[in-house]
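thought: fold this chain, then report.
action: predict
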Amino acid sequence: MATPPHDEFRVGEELINNPDDRRQSSGNVYTNVRRRAIERPPVSRWRRIARDVAQGLVASVLLVAGTIWTLNQQKPKFVKPGELLRLPAAIVAAKPVPLTEQVFRVSHVLRRYTKDTLRANRIAGALVREGERKNLDPALLIGLLIAENAKLDPYARSNVSARGIMQVMPFHAGKWKGCESRDLADIDSNICYGTAILADFIKRSPNLQKALLRYNGCVRGTNTPRCHTYSGKVLRYADKAASQMLLAPFSAE
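observation:
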């Protein structure tokens, strides 16, 4: 059998003049074997239309099912919309609940930190009331409260003399409009001051994280060890509280 010139070689029955043209053959870059087309009977126009419609319906059903599944997997958090804060999406929800229900749900979370139900209820009432006044979400206030005073001790005092439930510095007493009492050991007064201070920091800070750091005194990162992690800690507590509030067994009856 005659040997083709060195610049020619055969692929099946096809003669290719240049090895670089092998990519143009109907084989692949690994085998250069020509693939034989599979002959199929012609499909009528109406069958093609019916097939396309069926595929479209299946795709639509899958899209709807996927959307429903996705929505079911997302657990909305318990918060109040239209808030002053630019809260992380994880703790933003779309619908507020009645005030009495808010107090119950906040108290439900706080009872995880104290066995004193009356204290939990009083703190919850103050958080919801002051949150409404300053347009702050109760879940955020819980997060701040737990980060500052997880024992919910109204007589707590820090090594820098911050006092009470929300660890308010003494020089704030009597200096905030709407907070009448100067007694920082009083739960309602302390929460009034703490909420007012946080709301003011939020207005004067570029973002929520900076506002929380200012509340903690971590402006230059020297107040407490690792204080730069404080804002993340508060927001984690807030997110957890929001989920727990949703699960509270509230009954309107």
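thought: worth noting. The two ends are 99 Å apart (CA to CA).
final: tokens above.
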